Amino acid sequence: MAQPSIARYFNNR
Amino acid sequence: MFEARLVNSSTFRKVLDAIKDLLNEASFDCSENGIQLQAMDSSHVSLVSLNLKSDGFDKFRCDRNLTMGMNLTSLGKVFKCSGADDTVTMKAQDYADTVTFMFESKKQDKISDYEMKLMNLDQEHLGIPDTEFSCIIKMPSIEFARIIRDLSQFGESIVISCTKEGVKFSAQGDIGTGNVKLAQTHNFDKEEESVTIDLQEPVALTFACQYLNSFTKATPLSNQVKLSMCENVPLVVEYQIPELGHLRFYLAPKIEE
Questions:
Q1: Which pLDDT band, with edges at 50, 70 and 90, does A12 fall under?
Q2: B197-215 as b/e, with b when 16 or more CB fall inside 10 Å?
Q3: Spans of chain B below 70 pLDDT
Q4: pLDDT band at A4, cuts 50/70/90?
Q5: What kind and span of H or E run contains B207?
Q6: Cβ–Cβ gap A5/B129 under 8 Å
Q7: In chain A, what residues touch B125 (CB-CB under 8 Å)?
Q8: Is B254 in contact with A1 (Cβ distance < 8 A)?
């Protein structure tokens, strides 16, 4: 399985 | 002028112990509301979010919003100099490039102060959307730490699955498999020993042991831990810091390649 980045789920503010 | 006094300096030390595995440096944002910190670990897989409310401090003054970038290894060295029962006072002038920590012993017979250099950190703030979670599990924090530690021996990942029957933690690897099932147990006399599940719909997600293990370094902060899960959304592992605020960890679930 792959480990995605947390940034993929949250928007840059 | 920024000044924050905490009678139990050990609480701050516990916060530091809980995040220093994941973060080498971090910015503490100070405002009249308190102290906030948000930072991703160096691999950008997890996110740490700390909120310490101003009214949880024994004294709190922040005339102007202030961001203090700190090296957490250095901060750890400063707090290593404190006694377990010491009171800590943090102080910084507006636009200062240093912060001072003063430790006072309970009997007021020893006072020490340490000035630490601040850093300019390029910080990236992420907007965390509100989520309707499929399940919210509350359980003893020590039990959670134990399960993660035990199952980490079997593999690199742990599947957390939650149904109305309970919550199951599973791991598999070269030596075999391990499963731990917990049923809901409500102990009205000892709330902190309860396992409670608020379930909207069953969910099963896979997480890296390495990060879950790091999160459990926060165990001394709180008797209970709250796990919030939803399909395709990061896991939230939350430790309430009594009277002061909370420490949350967000972890992206592993996905099929």
A1: low
A2: bebeeebebbbbbbbbbbb
A3: none
A4: very high
A5: strand B203-208
A6: no
A7: 12-13
A8: yes
Residue in chain B nearest A7 by alpha carbon: B44
- The predicted structure's pLDDT at residue B166: 95
- Residue B40, chain A, CB below 8 Å: the answer is yes
Most A CBs within 10 Å, among B29, B45, B122, B249, to test the A interface: B45
Contact B120, B112 (CB under 8 A): no
pLDDT, tens digit (0-9, with 9 covering 90-100), for B186-197: 878 888 899 999
Q: Cα–Cα–Cα angle for B177, B181, B184, nearest 5°?
A: 170
d(CA B241, CA B17): 14
Q: With pLDDT > 90 as the criterion, what percentage of chain A qualifies?
A: 62
Structural tokens at position B11: 């609480």
Q: Where are the alpha helices (DSSP H) in B130-207?
A: 141-151
The per-residue pLDDT for A13 is 55
Query: What is the model's pLDDT at position B186?
Result: 80
Say whether A3 and B45 touch across the interface (CB within 8 A).
yes
Question: Rounded to an integer, what distance in angstroms lies between the CA atom of residue B33 and that of residue A8?
Answer: 29
Closest Cα of chain B to A8: distance in Å?
9
Q: What's the confidence (pLDDT) of residue B230?
A: 97
